[in-house]
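Recall that a protein's primary structure is simply its ordered list of amino acids. Everything else, from secondary elements to tertiary packing, is in principle encoded there. The following example makes that idea concrete.
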Amino acid sequence: MVRKFARLGWQAVGPIYRAPTKLSLRIDAKRKESRCVLEQGAVLYPAARVSNNQPREAIRFGANTRVLARFETMGHGGRIIVGRDCFIGEDSYIWSAASVTIGDRVLISHGVNIHDHNSHSLSAAGRHAHFKAIFFEGGHPKVLENVPSAPVVIEDDAWIGFGATVLRGVTIGRGAVVGAQSVVTKDVAPFDIVVGNPARVVGRSGE
């Protein structure tokens, strides 16, 4: 049989071997698309992940946006709205319990973390109760007390460098630039360039 396939050549038999992979990719793509709203031309690449614990429309990608990142809304709330013509890179995580709003033409590099909440209680007992609920009692609770959250807004034309972290309650202004590995804990004015941990202003970007 191997000799027979060898005589046929890979061009002939390759599709037979690739078919299961193509099928699984199509199934995965349909599953992800069923968990969000994709406007015309928006693409979820195979690396993208969508874990939406809210109604489908709670995660929306604008026209022509390209997505390789992971998006998740929490069981107790969350909404993620991405504008048009954006790029969001691989291994980036955007998790929402309140709301994350990303404008048009925003570039978010790989390995970026954007969180609009604290994830867990500051109380040790509260954190353990949260852990038990998720793994032993049926999943993420619909009500989660003592876990602060606040909306994150990233305005049009902003650029977030690789490995950066944007924390709850932050607004990053139009055209602003966040340097690689920076940790943003406060608002960034339009067209400011910020770097560091915590991020500080080091210059101005152009329109």
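The first helix runs from residue 2 to 8. The mean pLDDT is 89.
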